[in-house]
Amino acid sequence: MKLAPIDYFILALYFAFVLGIGWRLRKKISTSGDFLLAGHAVPVWITALAFIAANLGAQELVGMSASGAKYGIMTAHFYWIGAIPAILFMGIFMMPFYYGSKARSVPEYLKMRYDEKTRAFNALTFAVMTIFSSGISMYALGLLLHLVLGWNFSTAVLCSAGIVLLYTFLGGLTSAIYNEVLQFLLIVAGFTPLAILSISKAGGWSGIAERLRAITLPTGQSGDVMTHAWKYMGNASQNPMGVELFGMVAGLGFVLSFGYWCTNFLVVQRAMAAPNMSAARRTPLIGAFPKMFIPFIVILPGIAALALAHMNLGYDLPTKNGGFDYDQVLTTLMAKFYPAGMLGVGLTGLMASFMSGMAGNVTAFNTVWTYDIYQSYIRPGAPDRHYLKVGRATTVVGVALSIGAAYAAQHYNNIMDLLQLVFGFVNAPLFATFLLGMFWKRATGHAAFSGLITGTVVASLTWGLTIAEGKGGVFGVVHEFPSVMAQNFWIAILAWSACFAVTVVVSLMTRPRPEKELEGLVYGLTKIPADPGAKWYQRPAPLAVAVAIIVILLDIWFA
Amino acid sequence: MLDLRVPSGFFFTLLGLILLGMGVFAPDTRAALTEANVNLYSGAAMLVFGLFLLLMAYRATRSHS
After folding, report:
1. Are A176 and A360 in contact (CB under 8 A)?
2. Which of A42, A221, A389, B6 shows its CA 20 to 30 Å from the CA of A341?
């Protein structure tokens, strides 16, 4: 792919705008709360789009179109099953406790609800995790730009990280959130034409279905396996993902998805930046509307690419080392469908997605480091001015550490794989801790901590004792899964169940906390303020019902 | 507080004008796999979206004052 001067101009224009927004917002920062929490003053349509954009990193765009080409429309389960229900639950049931507790972060909520050690465990693992995930996505972007455009890895990584650093340093969380909205709009503008062009070229949905039939039939699978999301879910051996219904719904749809959307501070932080409880609850619910349509611009082009590759048009699926390199599907499509000009917009959209993901990580890391680690354990009781300074310095350190992680990923690929695995172990049980904490006033701090540790151990043991596609099984093989994805889902299910069971049992053996201390933190002891000023369509329940109806229709349409 | 619709509106208006200009003055700039004048259509859509954001922002300032 070769870029014309006009494409570089569009990229530069975008850089100018994100930096300009950061510059304009710099004067709003006078306390650490302004910098790290956006001063609870961001309009709800902005927090809602940022809520979705912070999760819509470059890895997600590239990975979802790759999965589209690999697994077909089943990939949409990552949205319709693996995101929407959890987002609705978060807005309706969990946000009242997060926002009502006045906690500044998710780990801080854990401290208020449980105890210091549970907070420390969560804060430390979260801080390490955000650094590595932003480093890994930076590495992925650098590699992609190197492969596709021949750009130098270091230049690409340092430039994009430098711009994120500048605008988050200037305007803190507000600047990150405002830019995430611009980035989200740009992603939609940059990729919608690609979806339209590639799908119509492949003959529309029915044309694609017909061509894919000719591709999948010879492999021994059913002809329509790539164009049905539900039809082949009954049996893991019949669908390309190798996952069965229970593993999908319980593993992805319940444990992993609720664990991410309801407890990950990266997304929760966006909702917490809203000006009041009502807006905080609406943030995820409004965000769910665009979220459920993202498959149309990221997954469908991937599916279309597979069809196009078999039409003798001069488009081939990208390859690397003799196998298909699905991660390049999105960029190779862009090269074939976008002329100079629009190509610049598409590439800028990709850059924008990377930046929104990275800024999400950096701002969440900032807050957790400054409030939950530095202010709690290193230097408590300093004047607020000091924490503002620490917050700013942490931005620089966080970006520097991410860059370090990106280079580490470049050199030690295996270690990074292992790290991501370990993070999965830590994340899987987390939702049990929150669920019990918010809805069962009897749950205690010792119980939460021992539940989390047990869950993490169970996750590692499950991985060590089972094997899938040659992965895992280091302690011996008790069971073999049809795919790594099925293995991951089952690791999550078992870790969650273990954490849930241990938390319940230990809670019943330890002394409960007095109810007075739990007001505002637990269901039944928290007044959820009615919102008399809100119109009916601004209330959480009607919004959630609308989202649920549309998602069910989408599922039926692609069943 | 900065009204985000203003910078976003300007950004998409500019982007739309650039692409529209490309579509009109360099209509032969085509991609390998499509006959469509991609710049023209996407540019027009972005321009409309940008102007819409600016209009919304303008209406908001008027109703405030």
Report:
1. yes
2. B6
Is B4 close to A178, i.e. CB distance below 8 A? yes
Query: What are the start and end residues of each CATH 1.20.1730.10 domain in chain A?
Result: 5-411+533-557
Output the CA angle A111-A113-A119, nearest 5 degrees.
25
Instruction: Tell me how far apart the alpha carbons of residues A506 and A449 are, in angstroms, rounded to a whole number.
Output: 10
Contact B2 A25 (CB under 8 A): yes
Spatial distance between the Cα atoms of A265 and A49, rounded to a whole number of angstroms: 16
Supply A192's token pair: 């919608």
- Average pLDDT on A64-88 reads 94
Between the two ends of chain A, the Cα-to-Cα distance in Å is: 36
Q: What is the pTM of this model?
A: 0.93
Structure confidence at residue B65 (pLDDT): 60
DSSP-assigned letters across all residues of A466-533: EEETTEE-TT--SEE-SSHHHHHHHHHHHHHHHHHHHHHHHHHHSPPPPGGGGTTTSTTSS-----TT
- Among A468, A421, A63, which residue's Cα sits nearest to residue A236? A468
> A11: which 2 tokens?
């990229």
Q: Is the separation of the CB atoms in A370 and A99 below 8 Å?
A: no
Helix (H, G, I), strand (E, B) or coil at A320: strand
User: What whole-number distance in Å separates Cα of residue A288 and Cα of residue A48?
Assistant: 8
Question: How far apart are the CA of B63 and the nearest CA of chain A, in angstroms?
Answer: 17
Instruction: Return the minimum-mean-pLDDT range out of A140-149, A197-206, A275-284, A521-530.
Output: A521-530
Instruction: Write the residue in B10, B12, B29 that is nearest to A339 by C-beta.
Output: B29
Q: Classify domain A5-411+533-557 at the CATH class level.
A: mainly alpha
What's the pLDDT band for A39 if we cut at 50, 70, 90? confident
Angstrom distances, CA of residue A242 to CA of A235, A237, A324, A421, A435:
8, 6, 19, 19, 29
Q: How far apart are CA A371 and CA A148, in angstroms?
A: 41
Does the distance separating the beta carbons of B11 and A17 come in below 8 Å? Answer: yes
Q: Using an 8 Å Cβ cutoff, are B54 and B17 in contact?
A: no
- pLDDT tens profile A131-169: 998 998 888 888 888 988 889 999 988 999 999 999 999
What is the Cα–Cα distance from A431 to A417, expressed in whole angstroms? 23
CB atoms within 10 A of CB A515: 11
Supply A292's token pair.
């459920």
Tell me the longest C-alpha to C-alpha distance in chain B: 52
In angstroms, the CA A374 to CA A225 distance is 52
d(CA A230, CA A210): 18
Match 């893991």 to its residue by tokens.
Answer: A236
In chain B the first and final C-alpha atoms are separated, in Å, by 15
Q: Distance of CA A179 to CAs A28, A189, A263, B47, Å?
A: 15, 15, 23, 20
Strands of the sheet containing A466-468, edge to edge, are: A471-472, A466-468, A479-480
List CB contacts (< 8 A) between B34 and chain A. Answer: 197, 201, 337
| Angle A66-A226-A332 from CA coordinates, rounded to 5° | 30
Beta bridge partners of A319: A324
The answer to whether residue B33 neighbours chain A at the CB level (below 8 Å) is yes
